[in-house]
Structure formats: structure tokens, C-alpha cells
Write a structure and sequence with these properties.
Shape: globular
Largest sheet: 4 strands, antiparallel
Bound molecules: calcium ion
Strand content: 35-45%
Number of strands: 22
Number of helices: 3
């Protein structure tokens, strides 16, 4: 099952990310691509558990392969031109705009892009090797800001100027994984440390209290989001292609679904539509896969970033 966003694709012509302004979003790219390149099934959105990454109509991987094939090089040009012509059609799409955030460790820089939007990604140099990037509304202003976790120190940059203006100590044990989500409902991101199945939650309503929640196992990828749409943040873990979600905080999963499982991919959650349900996403070397129905099927995809980047956040642009 697909959503209204099923065939919405971010198209990127084969040029290094951020060095090209030809990052376009358009509707019906899948149908367009299959027309121009009929030997590829661009209308199919295979499940994320396939042995190899699904073909992309306009993604860099597909583009590289196709560029090597001189016999159809001209078709690429035709496709690119057609993408350009389709750009305006997407303006009629009533889907909400999304803010995509990734972090590039090689140059310690956040990249923030709004799609659809004509502005190039905003670049925020911030951090050093080994830092863990975070992007959340730490101040309760309605605006998300960058932060870094560095061996138990949280370096929050309210002005997104590459300098921390608040430093908080929380966590710091080897293997601790930081998360920043508003769990206690005061609109300010709470600091959370996942430690091998134990969640340490320091809510902003009462900084003196650290709550402990048990869910998951050592080695799990922790995730915090409202999966069931009841307005409360759920505790979730990603484990080798399976997602387990504890919606009532009793340590047992109410939701369990498969999505992903390939080596090298990263699991994150994002706000995707206005219904308030968080959606699971996978990041594979610059390709983002969305499963809006929690059924393991890819309902939308985008291209943003490249190999080595860290996906940080996806939210409704406001
Ligand atoms: Ca809070
Ligand atoms: Ca919930
Ligand atoms: Ca439960």
C-alpha cells in the first residue's frame, strides 16, 4: 500500500551533493522514468528487505550506472530535462514540506534542507571528530537547533552559529547513545541516554529527576517517537531489520514490524504527515526510504547526502 507520497521522488542529477543546485522534487517521476527507460521497473517500490537496493529513478547510484552505459547516455539527458519540466507540477502537491537534517562527520557540518524549497541546504559547521549530532527544540521556542553529544557533554547551540551556549553533563559511559525528544510534554527536548536496554530520561520539567525505562537489548538502535499517534512518545528499538515499539512503557513491544536489515543502513524516525504518526525511515548512503504504513514497504524515498553522512532528523517544516 502506498500513500499520496508514493511516487514523490527527489531527483538529483549525477553531480556531487551540495555542489549542484539541481536537486529537484517532482511528482510522477516513477512513471516518467519508466517511460524513458522502459527496461527498468521504476514504478515498483520493493520492500526494503530485498537483497540489493531498489532501483532509483533519479538517484546517484542509478545515475552512475546509467552514465557508464554510453548507449543510453542521451536518455539521461532527456530524463534530466524532463525532471526539470516536472518541477512546477509538484507545487500543486498538497503534501507538507519536510525539513531534512544530516550531519557529515568528514567536515563536522550539519546540513539542513527544506523540501520542497528552492533554497540550497543550510550549512552549519559544528563539532569535532567523534561527536554525535542531535537536532531538537531544546529551548521550547518551536525551532529545532543543533547540538552535539561528546562523551557525556551535551553542547547545545541555540544560535546555530557553531558555538555552544549551553553545556549539560549527562551520560558519559562508553557505549551510551544520546537522544533528544520532548517526552514530558513541555515542548522542550529532554535528554535521554540509551545504555544497553536501559533508558535514562532527564525531563525538562524536573531536571533533578532521572527516570529509568527498560526496553530493548544491548546493541539495539534506540528511537523515540510517537508511533501510534496518541500524543505520547513511544520507546522503540531497531534490531537487525526489525522494529519493536513499546507504546505503554511497560518494557514490552506492542508494535513489531520488519523494515530494513541491510548492512550499513541507519534507522531513524521522522514526522512525515500531519496525522501525527511517526514513520520509520532508513538511510542508505544518501538514499532515504520511508515506510509510512509501518508495513515494511517503501512508500516514499528521497536523495539527500551521501555515504558516511549521519541522518539526524526529519520533521514537518514550519
Ligand atoms: Ca520536555
Ligand atoms: Ca505513542
Ligand atoms: Ca508495552
Amino acid at each position: 500500500m502506498t500513500t499520496a507520497f508514493a511516487d514523490r521522488i527527489t531527483c538529483k542529477v549525477p553531480a556531487p551533493f551540495f555542489e549542484s543546485t539541481n536537486v529537484l522534487r517532482f511528482s510522477s517521476c516513477a512513471a516518467l522514468a519508466s517511460t524513458i527507460l522502459p527496461n527498468r521497473n521504476y514504478n515498483a517500490f520493493p520492500g526494503a528487505r530485498s537483497a540489493s537496493p531498489p532501483p532509483l529513478g533519479c538517484g546517484p547510484g542509478a545515475a552512475r550506472r546509467l552514465m557508464d552505459m554510453s548507449a543510453i547516455a542521451m536518455r539521461i539527458l532527456v530524463l534530466t530535462a524532463a525532471c526539470l519540466s516536472m518541477a512546477d507540477a509538484s507545487a500543486k502537491d498538497d503534501a507538507p514540506a519536510h525539513q531534512w537534517v544530516l550531519y557529515r562527520p568528514s567536515n563536522s557540518t550539519f546540513y539542513v534542507k527544506v523540501d520542497p524549497g528552492k533554497e540550497p541546504p543550510m550549512e552549519i559547521p559544528y563539532g569535532a571528530a567523534g561527536d554525535v549530532p542531535l537536532y531538537a527544540d531544546f529551548n521550547g521556542t518551536g525551532k529545532r537547533i543543533p547540538a552535539l553529544y561528546r562523551k557525556g557533554q551535551w553542547l547545545i547551540s541555540s544560535h546555530a552559529d557553531g558555538k555552544p551556549d549551553a553545556v549539560v553533563n549527562f551520560g558519559g559511559q562508553p557505549g551510551d547513545i544520546p537522544l533528544a525528544v520532548d517526552i514530558d510534554g513541555d515542548n522542550r527536548a529532554d535528554l535521554v541516554i540509551f545504555r544497553g536496554g536501559e533508558w535514562h530520561v532527564r525531563g525538562t520539567r524536573n531536571l533533578a529527576v532521572t527516570q529509568i525505562v527498560h526496553f530493548g537489548l544491548p546493541g539495539d538502535v534506540p528511537l523515540l517517537a510517537d508511533f501510534d499517534g496518541d500524543g505520547k512518545i513511544d520507546f522503540a528499538v531497531f534490531r537487525a531489520g526489525h522494529w519493536y515499539v513499546d507504546t505503554n512503557r511497560d518494557g514490552k513491544a506492542e508494535l513489531d514490524f520488519a523494515f530494513g536489515g541491510m548492512a550499513g543502513e541507519r534507522a531513524i524516525v521522522g514526522d512525515w504527515d500531519l496525522a501525527g504518526h511517526a514513520v520509520p525511515m532508513l538511510f542508505r548512503d544518501g538514499e532515504w526510504l520511508v515506510s509510512a504504513q509501518h508495513d515494511g514497504k517503501v512508500s516514499a524515498r528521497a536523495v539527500f547526502g551521501s555515504k558516511g553522512d549521519i541522518p539526524v532528523a526529519v520533521s514537518i517544516a514550519r
